[in-house]
């Protein structure tokens, strides 16, 4: 499992863009994790699935609401990572009103989740291999803080916990 001091895995996530800009076409665009995190402080949180109850009611809204405070604490970008395709993440971004606040990044084949060692097998519930629920503070591509939830819990990966860690 990834730990504090480790570099983020060299994988590619996908991001759905509704408008063209900054070299991004409309639709899914690749995000090279190493390049996108280089020289930045990232508040990254991952969760089991888009549109799921805890994720939609608590996890994403907390980061949207705390976006300004996280920026003030030195966070350059907030990333939400989930084992869903870019189209689903794009629809969820619209639903959660994350534009300009949280980058909704798709880990469609769970490559990022597998590379971090933070997978959650929800096959018995019809959801297949997913990401565990966690948050991490990333500085220049390296994990500075990591908060992994126990199964079925939402206690340490919330925005308030990561904000306290970013404020140091």
TrEMBL record:
It is an enzyme of class 1 (oxidoreductase). Pfam families: Redoxin. Its EC number is 1.11.1.27. InterPro entries: PRX5-like, Redoxin, Thioredoxin-like_sf, Thioredoxin_domain. Coiled coil: none annotated. It catalyses: a hydroperoxide + 2 glutathione = an alcohol + glutathione disulfide + H2O. Belongs to the peroxiredoxin family. Prx5 subfamily. This is Glutathione-dependent peroxiredoxin. It comes from Pseudorhodoferax aquiterrae.
């Amino acid at each position: 499992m990834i730990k504090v001091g480790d570099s983020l895995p060299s994988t590619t996530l996908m991001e759905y863009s509704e408008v063209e800009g900054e070299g991004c076409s409309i639709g899914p665009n690749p995000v090279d994790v190493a390049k996108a995190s280089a020289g930045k402080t990232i508040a990254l949180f991952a969760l089991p699935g888009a549109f799921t109850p805890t994720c939609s009611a608590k996890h994403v809204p907390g980061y949207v609401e705390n976006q300004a405070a996280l920026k003030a604490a030195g966070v350059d970008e907030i990333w939400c990572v989930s084992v869903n395709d870019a189209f689903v993440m794009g629809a969820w971004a619209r639903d959660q009103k994350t534009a300009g606040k949280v980058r909704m990044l798709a880990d469609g084949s769970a490559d990022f989740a597998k590379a971090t060692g933070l997978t959650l097998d929800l096959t018995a519930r019809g959801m297949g291999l997913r990401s565990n629920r966690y948050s991490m503070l990333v500085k220049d591509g390296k994990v500075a803080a990591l908060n992994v939830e126990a199964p079925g819990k939402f206690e340490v990966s919330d925005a308030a916990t990561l904000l306290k860690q970013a404020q140091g």
